[in-house]
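If you are new to this repository, start here. Below is one unmodified record pulled from the training split, so you can see the exact layout before writing a loader.
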Amino acid sequence: MLPPNTTTRQRPSAALILKLFLPSALGILIFFVPVEIGGRSTILLDHMVTGARSWLGDASGFYALALIAAGAAYPLIRGYWNRNVTERIFTALKLLGVMAALMALTGWGPAFLHEPDMLPFLFEKLVIPVGLIVPIGAIFLALLISYGLLELIGVLVQPVMRPIWRTPGRSAIDAVASFVGSYSIGLLITNRVYQAGQYSAREAAIIATGFSTVSATFMVIVARTLDLMAVWNAYFWLTLLITFIVHSRHCSLAALIAYR
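And here is the target side for that same chain:
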């Protein structure tokens, strides 16, 4: 018999191992493995977005307009648009966004806004791709962040968090969640841990300002705009490395601001 208060460490079952590795492997395949389709080699997520845009055709612009209009109408319908100054400002900006989208689609408005590098460029290269990649990417992003891969990476990099960034080991999960998943997810994790008293104000400030980066899905948009999809893996991993090196330089500044 085991003595009282003695716990046994159970080995993970094959089902649990498969639950970790199969979805994670599929997520890695979709986000990081170039596949050639139709003579074009890029990651599967980029192929999906291209296919969705081809399928929608000219309707892709109206789809983007519908998303923008829905985002502007939501605070008005829910009645919280005038809750505070911030909500009023953002609601006004959303309504201006609807007007800008209408001008981009219809050609109405000042001529300088319809120069090739103004509204047409922003709408075609940014608004429509983001409107397509966010919902599609969100579906498959869950494969990377919801089945244990995120936590596994966080555990592996914990030993370097305190000596380099002066934050607790658990902040590794915040950092990876922000970069691989979404900065809003990273901020949500940081806020919850801080509210639970597991981060000091200084640590929360460092994590929120240093680790909240642009998400991987938006990096695809940047890479497509700059024709970097052919070197996607080099672009992604070098950006990750450079980002964390730069953040290590700015941790002391964030700590000083938080201290004051």
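Two things worth knowing about this chain: The CA atoms of residues 177 and 186 lie 5 Å apart. The longest helix spans residues 232-259.
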